[in-house]
Amino acid sequence: MLIKKIKIGGLELKNNLFLSPMAGITNSAFRSLCLEGGAGLAASEMVSADSLKYSSKKSFEMLKVSPGEHPIAVQIFGTCPETMADAAAHAEAAGADIIDINASCPVKKILRSGCGAMLMKNPFLVGNIITAIKKRVKNPVTVKFRVGFTEKENLSVLLARVAEESGADAITVHGRPVSRMHNGEVNLDFLNKAALSVKVPLIGNGGIVSAEKAREMFEAGCAGVSIGRAAVGNPRIFSEIISELNGETAENAGDCDKVKLLARFLILNSELYGEVYGVIRARKLVGYWLKGIRGGAELRKRFMAAKNLNEAKSLLLQYIEKGKSL
Q1: Topology of the domain covering 255-324
Q2: What is the pLDDT of residue 242?
Q3: Quick one: average pLDDT of 227-252?
Q4: What local confidence, expressed as pLDDT, does residue 288 receive?
Q5: Matching CATH topology for 6-245 and 255-324?
Q6: ∠ CA 278-286-107 to the nearest 5 degrees?
Q7: What is the pTM of this model?
Q8: Could you tell me which CATH class the domain 6-245 is placed in?
Q9: How many CB atoms are located within 10 Å of the residue 104 CB?
Q10: SS3 of 315, please?
Q11: Domain ranges in the chain?
């Protein structure tokens, strides 16, 4: 059976399909919908440990966890073990069930600061960060990295062993190298080698857009899979994959169902940021949400011009009512 409960440290999760952390996307509103949609674990946007050190109000806001979004991993990034340990303690106090260390972000701005995937060049530092955090928090600690920097380079075995020896309770590996960002096929062979090298759960990530892609990662030895961009616009992808892998007929969301979920996201987003800024922030995701649906391009164009929650919500409700009569 591919879909099953999984234990990370002392925390047992209802299934092994996780929501990946995504900057600017996996806020409280989106996490809540993905957990409702079947995810066994949600993840926050990555939060800067240095920003927390200097009391950034925005960063502390990003740590907040609402009662309805457990279990949740809060992801932090930085280079100093002590500062990362302080950030982990703040995250745990804010409600995080798991502390996740970002050693995978390929964005140039993050790499230039020595954070994200740049940590992969210094396994010793990765180990020290994990050790420092483990000493400060009670909850499980995980780390995410990539298979390497270039297509032929496999750093994942060494990094996985270092992470496990340093006390990581689970490891997530993005199956693409840094050079490929989010494009191209994942390297299942590298993922398999990493999974076989450790005893803690290894979670596969990258390009999981269907039950078949999830199956490939499970068959490569991954104990779980982490889904990112495919969940944007379809928070129910988790339950769809669960149904298919369990041999059941998946009930895929129709066009009106997707727009209804978008309307719910919009309301939740506005509760977080206010009725104007909540709509502005939602614009970043609306293209994903409406991609492929009937009349989606025109609806997106009109949505982008909406100035507040009432205007945006009215557009979506009109689409739903029109769809009912077709």
Answers
A1: 1.10.1200
A2: 94
A3: 87
A4: 85
A5: no
A6: 90
A7: 0.92
A8: alpha beta
A9: 28
A10: helix
A11: 6-245, 255-324
